[in-house]
UniProtKB/TrEMBL annotation:
Name of this protein: Lytic murein transglycosylase
Superkingdom classification of source: Bacteria
Molecular function GO terms recorded: peptidoglycan lytic transglycosylase activity
Sequence intervals crossing the membrane: none
Domain Transglycosylase SLT: 28-319
Alphabetized PANTHER family for the sequence: LYTIC MUREIN TRANSGLYCOSYLASE (PTHR30163:SF8), MEMBRANE-BOUND LYTIC MUREIN TRANSGLYCOSYLASE B (PTHR30163)
Length: 404
């Protein structure tokens, strides 16, 4: 009898999901019709729209990826060590030589040094070896028909269709990430449409097939984002003993001269230069890890990808492509905190009177500020980082996981 009931239950569940899938397919078909009408109204040729939408389909995997969250919170040592690798440095130096003439021309025109352009290229697609395999138009249509970020992805889809028309692209050629990033430089359609440049003189800007187009477009993009020629991204530093970590972060920008007077030095211990150039301190792995001064171009890198980890990786990869030896400070061995660990941390901080907002498992500014206040109240080094000492004092039990 129990087996019979299980079979009936299984059939009911299967019927439910089949019904849900059928409804989703019907909804998507209606949404496609609306989107195609909107594209024609936006000025895309009807023949282009018809060709594009003939191959557009709903991609459940895109919704799954959009909703998914990593089980473990990425630490800086883990992130950095997977991206600034000896292979990527060696390959990047090959690319610098291979494209030296073009890269020098781009520096003269846009002010972006070659080693930075190659660093972006390496981090985005391993120098073009992996540009994504998802059908961009289907991915964007799937997300446009989903309510969570419909307006944003509808706009990106409309722009992708205009690109298809302007650059004479086929739907089959337009592959990329699940969210619609494309080509060697992983531009979203809007960035592609606004900043892509014909670098090889064929009259088109093809970021998949043409390395000159991709590198020229990256230089144009960074120029438009506000890159300051002649200045570096930042630098690794040493902090003085007893440094007040409340002075870290973008809100605490000071001149290099002021930081020098506070006892900060270059990573090798030499004094910082006297300069009115403003910078702020970034400590991505807590007081046990490396520290950096971030300049204006660091924020430009973050406009490409809004992540301090990413900006440091780009900057350090660029440095090493140009011959630097790499980080002076060692990367600490940190536990791989799960998102549940961070949620527990946030709940406990709130309960202890250190308001960090709604627990979400994300180590954002509010959580770091709450950790810092807790550390100050408990005579710990107030770096705003959830070290194991903080977790122990708050009674947060760590999920077993690999270390960084």
């Amino acid at each position: 009898m129990k087996r019979f009931c299980n079979v009936i239950s299984g059939l009911a569940v299967a019927t439910f999901f089949l019904g849900a899938s059928a409804q989703a397919a019907e909804d998507f078909a209606q949404c496609k019709d609306r989107l195609s009408t909107q594209a024609i109204a936006a000025g895309v040729d009807e023949a282009v729209v018809n060709k594009a939408f003939a191959s557009v389909s709903f991609v459940p995997r895109v919704i799954e990826l959009d909703r998914s969250q990593p089980e473990f919170v990425t630490t800086f040592p883990s992130y950095y060590s997977k991206r600034v690798t000896s292979w990527r440095i060696d390959k990047g130096r090959e690319m610098l030589q291979q494209h030296a003439s073009l890269l020098n021309e781009l520096e003269a025109k846009y002010g972006i040094p070659p080693h930075y352009l190659v660093a972006f290229w390496g981090l985005e697609t391993n120098f073009g070896s992996y540009k994504g395999t998802m059908p961009v138009l289907s991915s964007l249509a799937t997300l446009a028909c989903d309510q969570r970020r419909s307006d944003y992805f509808t706009g990106e889809l409309m722009t992708a269709l205009k690109l298809m028309q302007r650059e004479q692209l086929s739907p089959e050629a337009m592959v990329g990430s699940w969210a619609g990033a494309m080509g060697h430089t992983q531009f979203m359609p809007t960035a592609y449409y606004r900043y892509a440049v014909d670098g090889d003189g064929d009259g088109l800007a093809n970021l998949w097939e043409s390395e000159p187009d991709a590198l020229t477009s990256a230089a144009n993009f960074l120029d438009n984002l506000g890159w300051e020629p002649g200045f570096r991204w930042g630098r690794e530093i040493q902090l003085p003993k007893g440094f007040d970590y409340r002075q870290t972060g973008y809100q605490n920008r000071q001149s290099l001269t002021q930081w020098q007077q506070l006892g900060l030095t270059q990573a090798n211990g030499n004094p910082l230069p006297d300069s009115d150039l403003t910078a702020y301190v970034v400590v991505p792995a807590g007081h046990k890890g490396p520290a950096f001064l971030a300049y204006h171009n660091f924020r430009v890198i973050m406009r490409w990808n809004n992540s301090e980890f990413y900006a440091i990786a780009v900057g350090e990869l660029a440095n090493q492509l140009a011959g630097a030896k790499g980080l002076v400070a060692s990367l600490p061995d940190l536990p791989a905190y799960s998102r549940d660990n961070i949620i527990d941390l946030q709940k406990t901080l709130n309960q202890e009177g250190f308001d960090v907002g709604k627990p979400d498992g994300i180590l954002g500014p509010a959580t770091r500020a709450g950790i810092r206040e807790f550390q100050l109240a408990n005579e710990l080094i107030a770096d705003g980082f959830p070290g194991e000492d903080v977790m122990r004092k708050l009674g947060v039990e760590l999920t077993a996981g690999e270390k960084s």
